[in-house]
Amino acid sequence: MNKVLMVHPTDNVMVALKDLEASEEINFEGQHLTTVGPVKSKHKFALKDFAKGDEVYMYGVLVGKATQSIKKGEAMTTENVKHAASDVVVRERKTDWVKPDVSAFENRTFMGYHRTDGQIGTQNMWLVVPLVFCENRNVLAAKEILEEKLGYSKGRDYDLDIDGLLQKIENGADSNGLIDEDIVIPLAEQKKNRAFKNVDGIKFLLHDGGCGGIRQDSDTLCQLLAGYLNNPNVAGATFLSLGCQNAQVEILQDAIKKVNPKFDKPVYYVEQQKSSSETDFISNIVKYTMAGLVEANKVERQEAPISALRLGLECGGSDGFSGISANPVIGYVSDMLVALGAIPILAEFPELNGVEQSLTDRCVEEKDAQRFVDLMAIYKHRAEAVGSGFDANPSPGNIKDGLITDAMKSAGAAKKGGSSPIVEVLDYTEQVTKKGLNLLCTPGNDVESTTALAGSGATLITFSTGLGTPTGNPITPVIKVSSNSILAERMKDIIDFDTGSVITGEDTIATKAAKMLDYLLEVASGQLETNSMRMRHDDFIPWKRGISL
Q1: 103: CB partners within 8 A, 6+ apart
Q2: In this predicted model, which residue has the larger pLDDT, 236 or 174?
């Protein structure tokens, strides 16, 4: 394994792949230098002498400026480098790209759920959702009544057979007999006990919106919920309405029609202010949900082409290796899916700051290039108006592990989008429809972004991380991809796929990407359950369009 890596030939910094000591000799691809002081693994060090104001380049793009003189071989830190990014203009299209070899996958399929409008899902979920936060407690009441009775996991690998123990007590078993009983029910057995074999889960969503705030927030919430209903991973839903809230049933229904005029999934609306009692209200929730599950259970997995997949591209808890292992591997998978006629979706606009020019150039249509520039400018202006900015995006964990400016973080994050042309630029809650790479305006906040990806139609989400995060999604399988093998071993109950072998040189980006696509097809077919699915990390946070980086 090499000690260092130069990511792009025009870079003037290098990455330490291992901890480097002071005065350590570095000889790599024509570069010869001696480290001035220690350089931690994942961090960067100077390949030349920098004067104050000199530009810092990594991944071939501007990622910062020196705030003081930096010696050749010295570590780059928040004390000597600040965020900087290139200006962006809409210019000629640069959509030429080299398609990866996908011959091994051209005839591959997955087992998905076919919807009547032609969409194909990787899951078959029923939703129970409040239109307003006042109904959260009733959603939880329905969850407590339904989930266990219908045989759905509570987020662990086992259940306990309390009913069996009670039966033995009724039959006269003594205390010693009870202690000797094996009451553990493995996850596989739990699934066999499900009342609805073709329904992968009932998801009970909670949120703090629907009333108060501004009317636009409630309208946007309805648009997001319409997107969740339209996602082919969803079979239908039961909505709980108080009755007087801003997010009226009619607003949601109009949003559904706008999202998909052909929408025909079963949807039930239960209003508390029309109920005679809370008992009556909750019993209606349960009855309508059970009726919906009967309909959802009629849909079975059938063979489907890879072109039907929609892959959300997400990262969180990134480290200095994310941009050279996990994200490039995901980016190669993205390119493979484009070559196979599928849809990857790149989100997190604050984490594209600094690489806007290359993304703008890759837009097939000039109108999309201009829309991307405009959305980024609006977002940046809103952040600065409240005293923040994109430069505040890197978290303390990012910085500690080598991502010291937003542009440096962004240049690595953008690698998830591969190199294919961008076919459409979408604003928050808009639906993906065009085959090829799409850009979706979301915050960099992990849960708000994954919530948005599922709401715009993603049927799988790859989530790269270098530090580890338990984020999941209620309707779309989230595949956690580690940038390094140390993390994969330490957090094996969270990480699903390890790309650390790219750092050690055991795998290339292309060979690891092929293995990842194999893995994604197994998840899409219901053959594998990701850790976030198994542990029921059903995170759902709508974005209120305020400033969230």
Answers
A1: none
A2: 236
How distant, in Å, are the alpha carbons of 101, 129, 310, 334 from that of 98?
A: 9, 44, 21, 13
Can you tell me whether residue 430 is helix, strand or coil?
A: coil
Whether pLDDT at 391 is above 80: no
538: tokens are 């059903």
Environment class of 487 (CB within 10 Å of its CB; exposed 0-12, middle 13-18, buried 19+): buried
- Residue 57 CA to residue 85 CA, distance in Å, equals 10
φ, ψ of residue 534 to 5 degrees: the values are -60, -40
Residues 328-337 pLDDT 10s: 999 999 999 9
Residue range 398-422: mean pLDDT, rounded? 89
Beta strands, E only, 418-466:
422-426, 437-440, 460-465
Give the SS3 label for residue 444.
Answer: coil
Tally the C-alpha atoms within 13 A of residue 84's C-alpha that lie toward its C-beta.
16
* Matching residue, tokens 């039959």: 171
| Tokens (6 digits) for 390 | 């994109």
Sequence-separated (6 or more) residues with CB below 8 Å from residue 249:
131, 239, 241, 269, 271
Question: pLDDT by residue (tens digit) across 100-140?
Answer: 999 999 999 999 999 999 999 999 999 999 999 999 999 99
Helix segments in 180-240, DSSP class H: 187-192, 215-230
Cβ burial of 421 (10 Å; 0-12, 13-18, 19+) is middle
In the block, residue with structure tokens 């993603």: 458
Kindly report the number of other CB atoms within 10 A of residue 21's CB atom: 10
**Which pLDDT value is given to residue 204?**
97
pLDDT in tens, 186-211: 766 666 678 899 999 999 999 999 99
Predicted structure pTM score:
0.91
What number of other Cβ atoms are within 10 A of residue 478's Cβ? 29
Q: Judge contact between 56 and 81, C-beta under 8 A.
A: yes
Facing residues of 203 across strands? 127
Q: How far apart are CA 309 and CA 328, in angstroms?
A: 20
Burial class of residue 186 in the structure, from the number of CB atoms within 10 Å of its CB (0-12 exposed, 13-18 middle, 19+ buried): exposed
Per residue in 26-52, pLDDT tens? 998 888 999 999 999 999 999 999 999
CA–CA dist 243, 532 (Å, integer): 34
Alpha-helical (H) ranges within 123-247 are: 136-149, 162-170, 175-179, 187-192, 215-230
Report how far residue 20's alpha carbon sits from residue 43's, in angstroms, rounded to the nearest whole number: 10
Judged against a pLDDT cut of 60, whether residue 301 lies above it is answered with yes
The pLDDT of residue 161: 76
Tokens found for residue 522: 């197994």
Q: Which of 109, 107, 43 is nearest to 78 (CA)?
A: 43
Which tokens in the block code for residue 430? Answer: 């808009």
Between the alpha carbon of residue 80 and those of residues 37, 38, 304, 410, the distances in Å are 14, 15, 53, 19
Please, where are the H alpha helices in 231-343?
Answer: 249-259, 278-296, 326-339
Type of residue at 435: K
Residue with tokens 């909750």: 282
